[in-house]
Amino acid sequence: MATELGPTPVKAPASGGAPAHHAPKGVGEDNRIASQGRWASWLLAPTIIALAVVIVYPIVSAIVMSFQKDAGLDPATGLFTAGGPAGIQNYVNWLAQQCSAPAGGTVACPPGTLGGQFWSATATTFFFTVVTVALETVLGFWMAMIMAREFRGRSLVRAAVLVPWAIPTAVTAKLWFFIFAFEGIANKLFNVSILWTGSEWPAKWAVVIADVWKTTPFMALLILAGLQMIPAEVYEAAKVDGTSAWQRFRLITLPLVKPALMVAILFRTLDALRMFDLPYILTGGANNTTTLSILVISQIRQGFNAAAALSTITFIIIFLVAFIFVRFLGANVVEQSGATGKGKK
Amino acid sequence: MTTATADASALRARQDRGRRAAQNREKWAQGRTYLSAAIVLLWCLAPAYWMVVTAFREVGFTYDTSILPTHVTLDNFRTAFDTSFGNRFGQALLNSVFIGGVVTVVSLLIGVFAAYALARLNFKGKFLVLGFILGASMFPGVALITPLFQLFTNIGWMGTYQALIIPNISFVLPLTVYTMTSFFREMPWELEESARVDGCTQGQAFRKVIMPLAAPAIFTTAILAFISSWNEFLIASQLSSDATQPVTVAIANFAGAQPNQIPYTAIMAAGTIVTIPLVILVLVFQRKIVAGLTAGAVK
Description:
The structure holds two protein chains of two kinds. Chain A contains 14 helices and six strands.
């Protein structure tokens, strides 16, 4: 990528500029674009190089590692076996939930081992993603609609929603761990005695509730920013035309806020798919709250290369979801961020 | 004459009735707004309030349910900094400040140039670069950790500060570039043009005219960068040692006097200490921060 941005002469003007054959254009103009290109490549170089070192290098080496066998003790002979090329064996092992057998070859992983948890971790990750993002979207929209109204104390509400956002996730996890303790306030408030982190569904809902509490404000603020882009005259005109509040919401608010809403949902979805801190601290991944990220972390100490394969699978899953969002659901993040420098004027 | 007066008064009465109905509706809507706002306030603040109240409660009354502060004590804060059970909360605070500071400064120093180029210049491949940077900010941390774990083990960097700082840059830098690009697009760039007309070079115009104007944007971005580094847990939980761990890891691993007893009140005290500066920072610079958070999403 860096080479492409190198100070090569610019052949065609950047998108948004006039076509080259259009109107006689002075040599100065060409020079100007070329010099801007040179400037840009110098200014961008540090960022691109830094990101290449801290992101591209690890990804490439993770992919290389994922095709290697993990060195370790052979369970059958007790002798040390060296690594070596593994082909796609690591990937097959995860997807088919196979573990290497003492006699060589592979067998289905016994329950409880990391190798046998791939599909349940995937299901848990998607459960968390779908449920938290759905709840956050609905609640966030509601909060944004309230904050968009005029009332005394509005600035207080806008300040208050920033509080859960500002608390570090690790602290949030500990706070909800305390709230959901057996003798904690949640059980006392609702007069129940649930071992929240002790069995599957309470543990899952504990994670969902804590995540929704923490991240709904972010959603609400993004949606609020979208709502504020809608001119008040549009609503006034619709009111004069005798529309009901529900019609105004469905026919004006929703379509006009959709671009901002889609970006917010995309951001939150990708964030939820890599969820780690909250379940790791709140439930320790017990009772089927192990997400893909937690599974990778648990695997690292048992074998780098198998962990690299799993993290590559996780990366591919997240990439596919992002692709589907951008391609089919119209969440155009780059365009949304106003990449057309001239569009502003 | 009389009929006209009667008509007029009837009309006035009807108008009055209509106005009163409208006022009632208005009042009703206002009431609903306030009720909803109260629910939002309660939902956002109650758990945070519970953390602070518990932080000031005596250990023996950990599970006290009264809403107002009871059995108030500062012991928990002393316990939080106590190192006799293997906790190093004080050290962790310093570590977090140091790591967050370095990550923020480095990301801003590198990112400010990229943001300027992306906001201001026309060049080939701009979409590609923006897409790459956005993609980088959405990147899952676990995809980085495995190779880094192996690499840092091999070169003996496990548990060092640089092993925590470098991966942090990978997600703070894209955020920095992205936020600053949106801010820079909003600035009055005509001033740069006039500076150039007055004989400045592009570099001089940037340094003398744009930098001072950009200071608030850069400051806000710095706060956002620092917060995201301060909150980082995944990388730190795997690559830090007892000596270099940041506060998030220290709080997650906080141990009590007895292994089977979780020191909730001390953890809440530690959580309060970690959170209060952020909350103050965020509330003071509320407008700017919201603008920075939502920058790019709506423009």
